[in-house]
Amino acid sequence: xxxxxLIRKKREGAVxxxxxxxxxxxxxVGGTIPDYQMSAFLMATFFRGxxxxxxxxxxxxxxxSGEVVDLSFIPGKKVDKHSTGGVGDKISLPxxxxxxxxxxxxxxxxxxxxxxxxxxxxxLEAIPGFNTALSIEEYKNVIAEIGVVMIGQTKEIAPxxxxxxxxxxxxxxxxxxxxxxxxxxxxKLAEGIDALVLDIKTGRGAFMPTYEQAVExxxxxxxxxxxxxxxxxxxITDMSQPLGYAIGNWNEIMESVDCLRGKNIPDIMELTYVxxxxxxxxxxPKADQLSAEKKASSLKEGIERCKNAVKSGAAYExxxxxxxxxxxxxxxxxxxxxxxxxxxxRTVAAQESGYVTTIDALELGxxxxxxxxxxMKVDDVIDPKAGIxxxxxxxxxxxxxxxxxxxxxxxxxxxxxxxxRIAKAFTIGNIPPQRSPLILSIVDxxxxxxxxxx
Length: 454
Fold this sequence. Notes:
The protein is α+β, with helices and mostly antiparallel strands. The chain folds into three domains: 3-49, Transferase, Pyrimidine Nucleoside Phosphorylase, Chain A, domain 3, CATH 1.20.970.10; 79-334 and 438-450, Nucleoside phosphorylase/phosphoribosyltransferase catalytic domain (Pyrimidine Nucleoside Phosphorylase, Chain A, domain 2); 343-429, Pyrimidine nucleoside phosphorylase-like, C-terminal domain (Aldehyde Oxidoreductase, domain 3). Helix content is 44%, strand content 16%. The chain has helices at 3-11, 18-30, 35-48, 52-63, 92-101, 120-124, 136-146, 159-170, 177-190, 211-227, 249-260, 266-282, 299-311, 314-325, 331-334, 361-373, 415-425; strands at residues 79-83, 106-110, 148-152, 195-202, 231-238, 246-247, 344-349, 354-359, 387-390, 397-398, 403-409, 426-429, 439-444, 447-450. It has a five-stranded mixed sheet, sandwiched between helices. A four-stranded antiparallel sheet has the order 6-9-11-7, with helices on both faces. The relative contact order is 0.14.
């Protein structure tokens, strides 16, 4: 077989066999298939899709393109969370230490920014000295010592995905359900987890803009996870406006730290507690091993344990220990005024009075990339200081000339255009909008149902 033949088959809508998919993936990892041909295959898949069996085989091949980590020597069920990506989505940063403080080990292998969405690794690396490139041995040591670790893919973990991930970002092939499913699940299954919680975002700022697309992706991810023997639960959540008030890497670190110190930023903490509650629930020991300390037999109990971890200060302490252990300079967390400031900043004000009826999350995400907070090319260097701080969220009252947002950049040439884009991202009307729920549905092995806390 040849790569040209397989690209043509996929372009025509054919179902590829596991052997054919193996030829493509092993060839790409081995260097015999160049980026330009892999780009053609990705685009053909974007338009033609994959069958469920193809998606499963694709995930399995990506998973076994490298090492599958064994964490069985660490007591307890290891649980991770993954988000499909959004604007201002820093949930992993407070979530991981909160869940670890509840006694559930959290091994987290994260990615970099894709398209208009930020990446957990880029945010962590905004902390001076923080090392996301730990070896597998160090990864195991940190999770064993602290109960939480946050790293990027090593050369051993799903190397096929590592190469493909960056290529998808710059070839407009991110928003493809089989490719997303294979990318997410190959990394997550390789990191040594026993269970997984998924945050599948829908709305203007998500890769799945419609609810129906989000349900399709959620079912694919949950199905793959359970097929591999890992209990997997997904939540479909709204991404029509940014999460929290901070967009940009250092901005989002600071907002996350505020949350860990007890500040209640409503949308961030609502989502963090629900996802964390699910992780604690899935991480409960077997019935004969239950203890008063670790028991969380329901989502509601898991949420309460997460709230207590923040109130007691245990979650913040866990975060500080992780940052120190992974080489980060904690003095910047404790004294953020030490951090360098951007050369240029501007506040965007409302042109009329009324209520913020919509905020275009996609437009703000793209603007943050323009400011330097993301990548337009694979080799772009991120400016951790760059970003946007919102002053208003959807539903807020606003007066004419009152601030809507402030942005930061080192690139003087884009200041005027960024101000125009941010101003256009806000819609102001005379009537306050009806508030929509942040968490829409829950997806598990039994199907999809509306989310409601009992």
